[in-house]
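Explain this fold:

***
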Amino acid sequence: MVSVVIPVYNKRDALAACLDSVLAQDTDVEVICIDDGSTDGSGDILDDYAEKNTNIVVRHTENRGVCVARNTGLELASGDTVAFCDADDTMPQDALRSLFAAMESTGADLVAGAIETETAGGGMFVRSTEPREIVDPVAIAECTMEPLFDGCYGKLYRKELLANTRFEPGRKVNEDGYFVFQCLTRAKKLTAIGNPVYRYRYEVSSVSHGAFSEKFDDILYFGQKKRADLLAMGPSYEPLAARVAAKHALDHLNKMASCRSGYTRDRLCAARRRVLETAGVLRPLPKKERIRLALIRYAFPCYTMLMRRNTKA
């Protein structure tokens, strides 16, 4: 049985579609919903679904954040495998069956599939990776550099892999990326499949184009945590540790530059220096990131203008 953990906070308008997609999975599923202190009626929707579906478990809690909500769900999970779904996203009907079949056939501890992202304008793009099986520990850890492994969704985890793995309470950005990183560094085998297994709904919030806030400093925080963890694992992980820290520095600058306020020019320049001091280890890079780095180095005003005009540039 697959336990699907769904943290819920004020997602009334999208919640039914999410729950319907998980309940429609063509495999045995346990749905664990943690109402994180919702005030918009989301809790009532959960209770209504639980009354009609015996495989839904609902817990109402005070608002403590998504990390605590997911951790609570993990404590309640009774399945042999675990998946995560956010309350405003959905899963294709065969998602869990595809992930579970790959896990059973390859013996992997963790299976990842492609993620479809619905943009604010109604378009769709897919995050995917080359279908493969990986057993080399360093190669598994290197997957943390791939965008597909930035989020905890779109994956199936053996429950024993999560025995000592939890989300860090109080963190709001990159918290699930670090959770997945911990799983990657502990997994003995990773399998990636090409099937789309998750539909992520992208929303352009006021934060995306508005003010930079302290929560985005979590990007640097988790970059340093990953670096320290990798260095502690031995010399063979040192090159990856440097690349991970450099990538998080670049992600942090990209986020800051895409916001129109909330930071000083000195802070922005410090973030730029951090990127330029570490960017040499970022090889290979996608074309988009190579262009960004060139602008950061040689035409910084153009880079900031581009980031503010189009956060997906």
